[in-house]
């Protein structure tokens, strides 16, 4: 996979286990992203800058495949090996299943891709 450029909408720092406002923070990011919905655009939930592993602090961002506003920062989905998890019911439930796996995760960059067709995939970065 080669690098893919997308456009940052907003980001915050949080922790799934020690931040009591994690759901509010992430929900707020997606609330901001709704203002920039456009037909045919993909949206991305990005997880990066991990302090350690899935139990540590990380930066969560929301981005789009189209430029939502003039000052939007471009970020790249890095070219690394990923394991894809299709989301069949619930995004959070899929993450809970991912946390139980024995994957050799890189903890550099993971992302959710919300496709214009309604499908959702979670991509977990792996060590090579």
UniProtKB/TrEMBL annotation:
* Superkingdom, taxonomy of origin: Bacteria
Q: InterPro entries given for it?
A: Cass2 (IPR029441), Reg_factor_effector_dom_sf (IPR011256), YobU-like_regulator (IPR053182)
Q: Which parts of the sequence belong to the Integron-associated effector binding protein domain?
A: 38-125
The record ties this protein, via SUPFAM superfamilies, to: Probable bacterial effector-binding domain (SSF55136)
Under the heading Gene3D superfamilies, the entry gives:
Regulatory factor, effector binding domain (3.20.80.10)
> A Pfam family in this protein?
Cass2
Which PANTHER family would you find in this protein's record?
Answer: TRANSCRIPTIONAL REGULATOR PROTEIN YOBU-RELATED
Name the record gives this protein: Integron-associated effector binding protein domain-containing protein
Source species? Listeria weihenstephanensis
Organism lineage string: Bacteria, Bacillati, Bacillota, Bacilli, Bacillales
């Amino acid at each position: 996979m080669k690098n893919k450029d997308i456009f940052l909408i907003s980001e915050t720092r949080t922790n799934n286990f020690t931040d009591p406002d994690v759901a509010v923070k992430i929900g707020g990011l997606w609330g901001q992203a709704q203002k920039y919905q456009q037909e045919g655009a993909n949206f991305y939930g990005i997880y990066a800058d991990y302090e350690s592993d899935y139990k540590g602090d990380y930066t969560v961002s929301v981005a789009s495949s189209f430029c939502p506003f003039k000052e939007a920062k471009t970020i790249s989905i890095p070219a690394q090996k990923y394991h894809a998890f299709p989301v069949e019911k619930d995004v959070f439930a899929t993450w809970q299943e991912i946390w139980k796996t024995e994957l050799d995760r890189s903890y550099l960059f993971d992302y959710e891709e919300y496709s214009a067709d309604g499908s959702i995939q979670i991509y977990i970065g792996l060590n090579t």
